[in-house]
Specification:
- The protein has 15 helices and 13 strands.
- By secondary structure, it is α/β, with parallel strands linked by helices.
- The chain folds into 2 domains: 214 residues, Glycogen Phosphorylase B (Rossmann fold); 150 residues, Glycogen Phosphorylase B (Rossmann fold, 3-Layer(aba) Sandwich), CATH 3.40.50.
- It has a 7-stranded parallel beta sheet with strand order 3-2-1-4-5-6-7. A 6-stranded parallel beta sheet has the order 10-9-8-11-12-13, with helices on both faces.
- Helix 7 packs across helix 9 and helix 10 crosses helix 13.
- The radius of gyration is 22 Å and the shape is globular.
């Protein structure tokens, strides 16, 4: 335990499987930066043949990689899932000091994602449930992914503290009655990188290799069915030759495609585009919509409850169909200045300062004696 204490000397610890900024761990980065000086990250490596990717925004002193890949079963059928399950059980039995540390009540352990299956549980443990799509059978998810996702979430049933990214997900959780603990909604933060650059669009487009004489429709997402990329593709085609689809993520049709771009480059892509098309079918939060608003890019998105919560009156809301998308893009371009103004105002609600204050306040309620003096001096 003495060796462990060389690293374990903070009041807040974040548990994750990865540190890869491009693998969906922006939230983990934001949590860490919001609690800088008060926290460290423990990335648990359950799979021997898959590394833990490092994050360019963290130094070696900010995190520890906990190797729990005791058995490599990844070549067997369903090997990743099997390895995760077996190695989690072995972690509990083979590294009692680590589990004992996690189970202490003198610090907060925050599981940033439910796929970090808890080896222990205490009254100061927190988990973030980003969405509950695995329980919505109207959403197209493969059988095995759905069952694995449901299993991970159900392991969080007895957590005393649960965070959701929106009131929408919180209401879903309360209605389903899955969790025993207190549920709190705290919106995600938009990165400070996302802002209007105030630069000439043509110059930005030349730097990015984008056409200067077309209307650029931006789409930012993974390729999951719920992202509705077929509608994106067909809508841009229907808009005509003067419109070009710019994709950040897997390519769609004849899109100009970017992948794994740093935040500064992504911000430039937002600034170089004319309109954002985000006809999603389901979200827990919808970060691309907030990034678009933060850059002043007119936004077209689906008329669903979660996007109404996140965007307020700062977007054109549509039926997520080809006809709805075409109409929405044209409407957004016609009122682009008004949407830009509203979007920039709405984006202030997702500033990093708001995010930081909400989380520091949240953590100080869980562990007041240890955290309040540190937060005041932080």
């Amino acid at each position: 335990m003495d060796k462990l204490l060389e690293f374990y000397n903070k009041p807040i610890y974040f548990l994750s499987l990865d540190l890869n900024l491009f693998g969906g761990t922006k939230y983990l980065t934001d949590l860490f930066l919001a609690t800088k000086g008060l926290s460290k990250i423990i990335a648990i490596r359950y799979l021997k043949n898959k590394g833990v990717y490092e994050n360019p925004f963290m130094s070696k002193n900010d995190y520890m990689i906990k190797d729990a890949s005791y058995l490599s079963l990844e070549r067997l059928p369903f090997g990743d899932t099997l390895s995760m399950f077996v190695n989690r059980l072995l972690l509990k039995s083979l590294d009692k000091d680590f589990v004992e540390f996690l189970n202490r009540n003198d610090h907060i352990v925050h599981y940033a994602f439910p796929n970090v299956r808890p080896p222990s549980l205490s009254e100061t443990h927190v988990v973030t449930i980003h969405d509950l799509m695995a329980f919505d059978y109207s959403i197209d998810i493969s059988f095995l992914n759905r069952k694995n996702w449901q299993y991970n979430i159900m392991l969080c049933k007895k957590f005393p503290h649960i965070i959701t990214p929106t009131e929408y997900v919180k209401k879903q959780a309360e209605r389903m009655g899955i969790f025993d603990g207190e549920i709190t909604a705290i919106h995600h933060a938009v990165s400070p990188y996302f802002r209007p650059l105030g630069r000439d669009k043509k110059e930005l487009r030349k730097e990015l290799g984008l056409p200067v004489d077309k209307t650029l429709v931006l789409s930012v997402s993974i390729a999951a069915p719920r992202k509705n990329l077929k509608v994106v593709k067909e809508a841009v085609e229907k808009l005509g030759a003067d419109y070009v689809l710019v994709r950040v993520g897997p390519p769609v049709g004849n899109s100009i495609t970017f992948n794994n771009v740093m935040p500064e480059v992504l911000n430039a892509i937002y600034n170089a585009s004319d309109v954002m098309l985000f006809p999603t079918l389901a979200e827990g939060f919808g970060m691309p919509a907030v990034e678009a608003m933060s850059t002043g890019l007119p936004l077209v998105t689906s008329d669903i409850e979660v996007m109404r919560e996140v965007c307020g009156d700062s977007a054109v809301f549509i039926e997520p169909t080809v006809e709805g998308a075409v109409k929405g893009v044209r409407e957004a371009l016609a009122v682009s200045e008004d949407l830009k103004r509203r979007g920039l105002e709405k984006a202030k609600e997702y500033s990093f300062d708001v995010f930081k204050q909400r989380y520091l306040s949240y953590y100080s309620k869980i562990l007041p004696e240890a955290l309040k003096p540190l937060i005041r001096s932080n």
